[in-house]
Design a protein that fits this description.
There is one protein chain. The chain has helices at about 10-15, 40-55, 85-100, 115-125, 145-155, 165-175, 180-185, 205-210, 225-245, 250-265; strands at about 1-5, 20-25, 60, 105-110, 135, 160, 215. The protein is of the alpha/beta class. It has a domain at about 1-155 and about 235-265: Creatininase (Rossmann fold, 3-Layer(aba) Sandwich). Strand 4, helix 4 and strand 5 form a beta-alpha-beta unit. Helix 2 (about 40-55) packs across helix 6 (about 165-175), helix 2 packs across helix 9 and helix 6 packs across helix 9 (about 225-245). The protein binds zinc ion.
């Protein structure tokens, strides 16, 4: 397993030379997780899952990346919510830096639900100018079998934030940081304060349902469940990396895409033509 930050410069170069050109970027955030989980829950778990997956299928794991989309966490102490545009630009520059260091394939492992739209937009944004890398954003549970295995383990229905599954995985990964005493008998169903509206989202949607940044029922969480769930995630990610390593279509067709876009005229004053 290779954690970027643990390698010497020479080891880093040697690993590239051996053809290790897939980088895993665990994308988390820093936010309240109910009354019982640490602020860093998402990036701690995401980084751990990436490291375990990279033991099964070699890849370099980027250091925990905890500047996520978390504007909805502003009412709670300890949240790190950079401005929306900086959050996007920071992520895009980090992707460019990973690419500049020689990685052709970057897999973003999303460990925070609130990052979903940011990450989708970021990978679309990579089409605005030619990149020497492809970005991949896997689903967290990959096959029907894995989804079933996940459901079999859990006792509660709502899984959204600091819930049974997230708390269980936290208990498996870093039990010393989980305060089940603080949870007491607390669960958090959606309050439904937007249910009178037609389907759709509003900027208040998360807050309407979960104003205490807890969504689900963590009371039945255990480390044993967490180990099973974590294995599902780790195996799924390792398998995903194995498949994209062998795939040539994405890089080849991306190159074709950039060529065609350049033929039409890709560059202007905001995106100048890169030097040849
Ligand atoms: Zn979380």
């Amino acid at each position: 397993m290779m954690q970027w930050e643990n390698l010497t410069a020479a080891e880093f170069q040697e690993s590239l030379r051996k053809g290790n050109r897939v980088c895993l970027l665990p994308a988390g955030c820093v936010e309240k997780h109910g009354p019982h989980l640490p602020l860093g829950t998402d990036y701690l778990n995401g980084h751990k899952i990436c490291c375990l997956a990279a033991e099964k299928e070699p890849a370099v794991v980027f250091p925990p990346f905890y500047f996520g989309q978390i504007q909805e966490g502003r009412p709670f102490p300890g949240t790190i919510a950079l401005s929306p545009t900086l959050t996007l630009e920071l992520l895009l520059e980090v992707l460019d830096e990973i690419g500049r260091n020689g990685f052709h394939k970057i897999v973003i492992y999303n460990a925070h639900g609130g990052n979903r739209h940011l990450l989708n937009y970021a990978i679309q944004s990579c089409l605005a100018e030619r990149k020497p890398y492809a970005v991949y954003l896997p689903e967290r549970r990959y096959t029907d079998e894995q989804r079933e295995a996940w459901k079999d383990v859990l006792e509660s229905d709502l899984h959204a934030h600091a819930c049974e599954c997230e708390t269980s995985i936290s208990l498996a990964n870093h039990p010393e940081l989980v305060k089940m005493d603080e949870l007491g008998d607390l669960k958090a169903d959606a309050l439904g304060r937007g249910d009178h509206l037609p389907p759709g989202r509003t900027s208040a949607s998360w807050y309407l349902d979960f104003p205490e940044h807890y969504a689900g029922d963590a009371r039945s969480a255990t480390a044993e469940k967490g180990e099973i769930l974590r294995d599902v995630l780790v195996d799924g990610l390792a398998e995903y990396v194995r498949i994209i390593k062998q795939d040539d279509n994405v890089p080849r067709l991306l190159a074709e895409f950039y060529n065609r876009a350049e033929d039409v005229g890709m560059y202007n004053h905001r995106t100048p033509r890169p030097p040849h």
